[in-house]
Amino acid sequence: MNALPKAKFLDPSTPPTMITLVILASMGALSMNIFLPSMPAIQEYFGASPSAVQFLLSGFLFMNGVLQLLLGPLSDRYGRRPVALWSFGIFVIASIVCANAPNTATLVTARTIQAVVVASFVLSRAAARDIAGTKDAASMMGYIAMGMSVAPMLGPTIGGFLQEAFGWTAPFWALSGLGVLVLFLVFRDMGETNLTPSSSMSEQVRQYPQLLTSRRFWGYALANMFASGVFFSLLGGAPFVGTEVYGLSPSTLGLYFIFGPMGYFTGSLITGRYAARLGTYRMLTIGSSLTIFGMVLALILVQNGYEHPIAFFGCTVFIGIGNGMVIPSASAGMMSINPRLAGTAAGLGGSMMTSGGGAMSALVVIFLSKEAGVTPLILFMLVSAVFGLLAAIYTIRVEHQMRGDEDHPTLP
Questions:
Q1: For the ranges 205-209, 258-262, 286-290, which has the lowest average pLDDT?
Q2: 95 closest CA partner among 81, 109, 80
Q3: Hey, what domains does the chain have and what are their CATH numbers?
Q4: Which string of b and e fits 296-324 if b means at least 16 CB within 10 Å?
Q5: What is the per-residue burial (b if ≥16 Cβ within 10 Å, else e) of 32-65?
Q6: What would you measure as the largest C-alpha separation in the chain, in angstroms?
Q7: DSSP code of 315?
Q8: Residue 407 has pLDDT above 70, yes or no
Q9: Measuring CA to CA, which residue among 263, 270, 266 is closest to residue 294?
Q10: Mapped to the 3 state alphabet, what secondary structure does 5-36 carry?
């Protein structure tokens, strides 16, 4: 039985409220994409190569993956609260350095350090698992994802207008200020939720094989990685497609980014309301299938001569719906393997997600050209979506095979 007291807003002796978990998770999403409309301006300002500027995204995602391997176990050992406080303190400093960077090397380095904000993803999910337990974790994560979907929905749009009004440094100054506010909120409202911390990091490491040798864990993690890989490929390819293929301004490109997060809001709402009723199996397969449908529809429209940006960007709403269904369900599945390793599982699974996403966001640029248009980007995302569905099917088969085993989790 859950021994945590009822959450009270701005009471650090109780668990964090839902609003705090939503805001915490939102900072990670906002930090990822608010600067995207500024990428062409950054390239022009520093006279940098496209690959160097692209590393502001791919390097950020790669470091996200590395840090999650550390932050998850640290939160299992020392607690969610101290890890959150330290992480956001570092994030604020890194954001200020980004805004004052005198050259590309400094900007890339500070941007990479800024990836410590990934603690927001790891800790919000681990805290939700601490509070809700196994059965209701997917639903709670769905509601958190629904709330945090506002950040990626508005991030590129806000970033585009900030870029046009104040220049490329404005999005980083905005992140600095927001980081300070979130740091205060964590300090005042995020009470500790990890009531059974491990006694040492060595004990934590000794329990790793329970995750690393679990076929269920890898199935959930791969479904998670390939589903989110579609979105990360969009983040990597859309700035080029928007400016070079469709000729969009930064603010207009930011507006077209809204379709994916709109879908994510919808998919997360579906998860929050129906995950316990439909079950993990259906959430994974339906979400993966919807993503594939969206990419096939975009391909059909583009190949049949629909040249308006809405033909592509409008279909990204299905990416959002699919991710909103798959990611919370897969995350809850990963953390159900061993509740004492919830933070470690969230970190390892999140590391795979963001590292794989970072690789995809960098790799997709190789296939893009003005002459080829948007088709290579659609095909790249479609392949990732298909692999996501295959991973979901594999996970379901493993779950069926292990039904009745001692370590089989309680399924929604």
A1: 205-209
A2: 109
A3: 18-401 (1.20.1250.20)
A4: eebbebbeeeeeebebbbbbbbbbbbbbb
A5: bbbbbbbbbbbbeebebeeebbbbbbbbbbbbbb
A6: 62
A7: T
A8: no
A9: 263
A10: CCCCCCCCCCCCCHHHHHHHHHHHHHHHHCCH
Which residues does 282 contact at the CB level (< 8 Å), separation at least 6?
Answer: none
Tokens 């050259």 locate to 103
Angle at 80 between CA 74 and CA 84, to 5 degrees: 90
Contact 31, 23 (CB under 8 A): no
CB neighbours of 358 closer than 8 A, spacing ≥ 6?
A: 57, 58, 59, 60, 61, 62, 64, 65, 232
Cα separation, 371 vs 120, in Å, equals: 39
Task: Tell me the per-residue pLDDT of 139-191, one tens digit each, with 9 for 90 and over.
Answer: 677 777 766 667 766 787 788 889 888 989 999 999 999 999 999 999 998 88
- Please count the residues of the chain: 412
Q: What is the rounded distance in angstroms from the CA atom of residue 222 to the CA atom of residue 162? A: 36
Q: Per the structure block, which two tokens stand in for 288?
A: 């993966």
pLDDT digits (tens, 9 = 90+) for 36-68: 888 888 988 998 887 788 788 888 878 887 888
**Rounded CA gap, 264 and 282, in Å?**
17
Alpha-carbon distance of 314 to 256, in angstroms, equals 8
**Amino acid 390: pLDDT:** 95
* pTM for this model (two decimals): 0.71
Percentage of the chain exceeding pLDDT 90: 28
- The label of the residue with tokens 């939160």 reads 75
